[in-house]
Amino acid sequence: MAPPMPHAKSRGKEKGVAASVGDKDSATISCLLSPQTKLRIMATAPSFLFALLAVCIAISTAAAMATAPTNTTGFVSCLTVHIPPGIVYTQASDSYPSVLDFSIKNLRFVTPATPTPLVIIKATKASHVQAAVRCGVAHGVRVRPRSGGHDYEGLSYRSIDAACPFSVVDLAALRAIRVDVKRKSAWVDSGATLGELYYGIANKSARLGFPGGIGPTVGIGGHFSGGGFGLMMRKHGLAADHVVDAVVVDAEGRLLDRAGMGEDHFWAIRGGGGGSFGIVVSWKLQLVRVPATVTVFTVHRPRNRSASDLLTKWQHVAPALPRDVILRVVVQNQEAQFESLYLGRRTGIVATMARMFPELGVMREDCIEMSWIESVLYFAFYGTGKPAALLLARGTKPDRYFKAKSDFVHQPIPRHVWESTWSWFLKDGAGLLILDPYGGQMGRVAPSATPFPHRRALYNVQYYGFWWDNGTEASEKHMGWIRDMHQEMEPYVSKNPRGAYVNYRDLDLGVNDDYCGNGAENGYKKARAWGEPYFKANFERLAAVKAMVDPRDFFRNEQGIPPLR
Ligand SMILES: Cc1cc2nc3c(=O)[nH]c(=O)nc-3n(C[C@H](O)[C@H](O)[C@H](O)COP(=O)(O)OP(=O)(O)OC[C@H]3O[C@@H](n4cnc5c(N)ncnc54)[C@H](O)[C@@H]3O)c2cc1C
Ligand SMILES: *[C@@H]1O[C@H](CO)[C@@H](O)[C@H](O)[C@H]1NC(C)=O
Ligand SMILES: *[C@@H]1O[C@H](CO)[C@@H](O)[C@H](O)[C@H]1NC(C)=O
Ligand SMILES: *[C@@H]1O[C@H](CO)[C@@H](O)[C@H](O)[C@H]1NC(C)=O
User: Fold this and answer.
1) How confident is the model at residue 396 (pLDDT cuts 50, 70, 90)?
2) Nearest atom (ligand 1) to Cα of 146
3) Angle at the Cα of 326 (from 322 to 332), degrees rounded to 5?
């Protein structure tokens, strides 16, 4: 792949980008290094000092002007003062394409037309992240963080507008995991994956686990930023509910922990969506206890084996099951696939199913006992006997095109609707639905406790379409199916606003007006179109926190939280 150079220098939006660092009071941006570092440089390498002075002069000049142009050259030379050259990749670098592609998961954003970053900084230390932010602010180049690159719309490494110059701080190499078994806690860096985290915990104790998402290659940084739910959520809630401290690089390039950032900022980073509230470098987690033995099952119920009846009843049963059980459903082709994780032994789940959902007909033989980490492998790769080391594989090339949308259901959907959905799964271009039930611990936490507001829903629906054909016809067919199916379900799902999950990012909901420029006057008002589906009443608080911690809206993207003015 040969990414084209965005025409940052010749497009109208360029002025606006620079304006964000060109306001009068950005003269207060201090020069980049701490006094200690300056002294050290002065003592050891006078030539660095000149570079430093040049940067300082550039900053002061930019700050003094009303609109400093986006200065990519200045940005890059600023970076080279503070960051080892081997980890800064410009579009001219030979390894730029492989570094860019490393964490791309969706072929939709690997086309020659996809606008790509001017520069990728592959940080190996927090100070590199700080330097990238400070240089970006000083030279009018926005910085997007990328942890695992799973963003459904690719916002961690692409813009939807070729005239929008930006850089990427890639955190894939910042991925240490330190588990403290005695305190049942862990520090995990944003660039680690869920698989690495689960493996790292299980490696230290067979009786500890963590309630995050299912996909092992998903990045910690983006996942926690959007809430994060998985198979233990009915017992333990969201991944973000278990974050007890964090280290973030803010819009001034400062490194702040929970005490330093304050409770409002700390609230916002645990579910307010990635890319708006700084770059989180590390997270401190409260781990959870898991039993020595858990039980899993997967049963398939085709349409002609009462799948409509089962789906109808499932809506009442699944959210009301004991917290130790999750029973989710994947609906695809002409069948419903029921998948379950039970935090206990086989006899327990067989008895619970017989009592609460006998129609499903789960037999003793369907149930498999295993350790918690084996269950993680079971759901990640569908099957038993897989080596735990599989969890450490970050994946190679993206293997598919995909598009997803989401909904929350508060009232059971009538049987006749389920019956009529089967015809949808016979259409050319059909995708699948994933139904994740809430209840249990999810229902016990206040919707304002974290930015994730959908705790009272019966269940989450994900519409997921995927394909391999690179033609536009295929893409239109599959994207069309997802959008039409979503439209079809409107009468039966949450309303005013119709909810959506920020970690299943969906640009159909709307994008910011001036997402790469100067910020629109009425940015907040327009952003409500997507902000309220994701965050409901919490959206206003998020925008208020944004105004406090990043008033210039440096951390901005197509769906970044705008400051409340
Ligand atoms: C195969 C697959 C399986 C999934 N399974 C689940 C699941 O079971 N449960 C669930 O809840 N979700 C799931 N998701 C969705 C996933 O949680 C989100 O896509 C998540 O945002 C991905 O995080 P990332 O770091 O990989 O993505 P990235 O693309 O790196 O980042 C996503 C967003 O967060 C920002 N961001 C990244 N790192 C940081 C950081 N360190 N600080 C601040 N902002 C940052 C990015 O700029 C971007 O806006 C899945 C996604 C995929 C593709
Ligand atoms: C933990 O990881 C180390 C290093 O990869 C490995 O040698 C060891 O067998 C693992 N232990 C457990 C209990 O998984
Ligand atoms: C259900 O339909 C499938 C084909 O879709 C068929 O193979 C199967 O025998 C049918 N089962 C029953 C119980 O009708
Ligand atoms: C699609 O893939 C084929 C075969 O690999 C290739 O020849 C073609 O140029 C591709 N088309 C597009 C639009 O990328």
Assistant:
1) confident
2) 30
3) 145
